[in-house]
Amino acid sequence: MEDFARLLKESWALVEEDRERLSAHFFARLFLLDPELRHHFPVQLNGQGDRVLDAIVTATQTVGDPESFDGYLRALGRDHRKYQIEAKHYETMGVALLDALRSIAGDGWNLEYDQAWREAYARISEKMLAGAAADENPPYWHGEVLTHERHGRDMAVLTVRALQHPLPWKAGQYVSIEVPRYHPQVWRRYSVANAPNDDNVLEFHIRTTAGAGWVSGALVRRTKPGDLLRLAAPMGSMTLDRSSTRDVLCVAGGVGLAPIKALVEELTAVNRTRWVHVFYGARRREQLYGLPQLQELVATYPWLSVTPACSDDLSFDGELGDISEVVTRYGPWTTHDCYVSGSAAMVRATLRALAEDEVPAHNIRYDTFGDL
């Protein structure tokens, strides 16, 4: 197994710096082999190839951990049902992938690398197909936008009711959303900002910036109540460990508040003995859009505390500084279950701070977001 993993890492190093060409070659070969597959992808492939390759690379990196390998790939197979991908398509994608790897790696490629990737892809497709076959849910859910609340120019909070079938998510998970009216076949992942409920209503916190993805822009600026969206199967493992008796630390940056809010909501229904500390950061006061709701929960649940912080607003009367720095002022957190959600930079900084605090890695769960 060690040699197998080594071969995958060595061979990936040959192409990792040339992902754009790898992606272009993969899709060109894929659509040449099966022109009908072109209809399963958006008109503009910008970013789509990277997400496909990210999924494949992440999968190959799990081969040394059978448990995560199985769970991740089964979930990925369920998720890919939204693309209407069938068993016959997996074989075609495998041929296109190997062809792209050989072409981009050039003379550095060898038979050992080729065999390792063949074996890895066979394992990947087997697990993904098993996950897809075992899923009794629809490939995606139709959802109706119930409310749409703007917070400034670039941010909105939406509630969406999943129609026809219950959508079985867990607090802390995310789903992919498509806006078929504006951008068909383009999917973007968003964390669900509330715990499961009998009404089948999901809440999303969406932020968009200049140059950001189409889906985020459409959800913030063009979507309105009554519009129909598509929601894919929930994914993600940043979920609550109900069997744990450890106190809880939650660290949220910006719209990374979404899964943290969902986790706190779940705790309001089941928690009796655990202290829960939420640290919530943004650049400026007005970006702490979720603070009033959190403060309402603090007034109701004595085991909950919320510490807001601003990094670029010297007039803010709370904590000042990056949220990763603020958290360290209140430690140690070595005996807590830790949940971290925000931008990639914020999550990296917070994970470093927790590592310096000697928090065991198995007590930390995290989620990153970004506008694609």
Structure description:
Keywords: 2Fe-2S, Heme, Iron, Iron-sulfur, Metal-binding, NAD, NADP, Oxygen transport, Transport. InterPro entries: Cbr1-like_FAD-bd_dom (IPR008333), FAD-bd_FR_type (IPR017927), FNR_nucleotide-bd (IPR039261), Globin (IPR000971), Globin-like_sf (IPR009050), Globin/Proto (IPR012292), MRET (IPR050415), OxRdtase_FAD/NAD-bd (IPR001433). In the C-terminal section; belongs to the flavoprotein pyridine nucleotide cytochrome reductase family. Its cofactor is FAD; heme b. It catalyses: 2 nitric oxide + NADPH + 2 O2 = 2 nitrate + NADP(+) + H(+); 2 nitric oxide + NADH + 2 O2 = 2 nitrate + NAD(+) + H(+). The chain has 372 residues and is of the alpha/beta class. It folds into 3 domains: 2-134, Globins (Globin-like, Orthogonal Bundle), CATH 1.10.490; 141-231, Elongation Factor Tu (Ef-tu), domain 3; 247-369, Rossmann fold (3-Layer(aba) Sandwich), CATH 3.40.50. Helix content is 40%, strand content 20%. It has helices at 2-13, 19-33, 48-60, 66-79, 87-105, 111-134, 214-221, 257-270, 291-300, 323-329, 344-356; strands spanning 141-150, 155-162, 174-178, 187-191, 201-207, 228-231, 247-253, 276-282, 304-310, 319-320, 336-343, 364-369. It has a 6-stranded antiparallel β-sheet with strand order 4-3-6-1-2-5. The chain has a 6-stranded parallel β-sheet with strand order 10-9-8-7-11-12, sandwiched between helices. Helix 1 packs across helix 6, helix 2 (19-33) crosses helix 5 and helix 4 packs across helix 6 (111-134). The protein is globular.
